[in-house]
Write a structure and sequence with these properties.
By secondary structure, the chain is of the alpha/beta class. 22% of the residues lie in helices and 23% in strands. Its cofactor is Mg(2+).
Length: 308
């Protein structure tokens, strides 16, 4: 039997468990572990041309990188776009999508780029800013919510639309905008969770799109409205999201130009050393850049002056 993985990253789940309880439940404490032969992979293939960066990843993975406050590491300055004013967000977006107006219908340009962020609120804000950069006319589509067997009309649509059930209530798109599926809608045709597409046309109940990833690259598909039932009937557009993603959504694939937007310190980002390597490897990927708006001020208010 072969086991694969990084024991610094893959830990058992114990609700409200302590660090020692997690360690005791791990495979290294199993009765057969003394008979296991361990083979270690020692070379970082993604960052093999940048030894300084590789050593940084190893220090993060081994827990040897100096921490600030509650186990927060200082991100190297070369990976950071500092926050100066509101225009910093525009600079941040330009780092990912330079000369966007010249590449509106360029599928190869769009498929290589992404912005990731910890919260849905930041996703909405960045998507709104970026969709306004496209020159075509925008179309806004809304979901329609209703409660099954709600004979007395106890639940108002405004309240229902405020409940997050994994689908967007409001979706604003333009022709040429990149989009991503969040559900498996038709795996046989390549329409799976994580499939990236380019919007080619917008209709009342359909979205005309071109697949950008997988074996069906270049295929034109129609994404219809669909009904989802979980006590709450929700008519939505096939689990779509625009091209800004939360970090968990975006850990599935590599891109050449990836940036991470962080606004609030309370939203902790737990990158394992493997995730750092996947998103930040300088020989294969562009730098992962943090917008540290409000982070420095929050640290100083808490007395953590070491941050720079």
């Amino acid at each position: 039997m072969i086991f694969g993985g990084d024991f610094r990253q893959v830990l058992p789940v114990i609700p409200k468990g302590t660090k020692s309880e997690l360690f005791q439940a791990s495979v290294v404490k199993a009765s057969f572990w003394s008979q296991v032969k361990i083979l270690k992979l020692r070379q970082n293939m993604r960052s093999r041309n940048d030894q300084q960066f590789s050593q940084f990843l190893l220090r993060v993975g081994d827990g040897e990188e100096p921490v600030v406050g509650d186990d927060m590491i200082r991100v190297p300055k070369c990976l950071v776009i500092p926050w100066e004013n509101e225009l910093s967000i525009n600079e941040f977006i330009y780092q990912v999508f330079p000369n966007l107006e010249d590449h509106i219908n360029d599928a190869s340009y769009m498929v290589e780029r992404a912005v990731i962020t910890p919260t849905n609120e930041d996703v909405d804000m960045l998507n709104e800013k970026m969709i306004n950069m496209f020159p075509s006319e925008e179309e806004t589509m809304y979901s329609f919510d209703s409660v099954e067997d709600d004979m007395r009309n106890l639940y108002q649509p405004k309240f229902l639309n405020s409940i997050c059930i994994g689908a967007l209530h409001k979706l604003t798109l333009k022709r040429g905008a990149p989009i991503m599926l969040l559900r498996n809608t038709d795996p046989k045709l390549g329409l799976c969770n994580g499939t990236r597409l380019l919007c080619r046309g917008l209709y009342q109940n359909l979205i005309d799109a071109e697949i950008l990833t997988g074996q069906y690259v270049g295929t034109r598909v129609f994404l219809p409205r669909k009904v989802e039932c979980h006590g709450l009937t929700n008519r939505v557009h096939s689990g779509l999201v625009q091209r800004v993603n939360t970090i968990n959504d975006d850990n599935k694939f590599y891109k050449h130009h990836t940036r991470c937007y962080v606004e609030k310190l309370e939203h902790k980002i737990k990158f394992s050393s493997n995730n750092w390597s996947r998103h930040v490897a300088k020989d294969k990927l562009s730098k992962l850049k943090f917008d540290n708006k409000k982070v420095k001020d929050q640290l100083e208010r808490n007395g953590w002056r070491q941050w720079s």
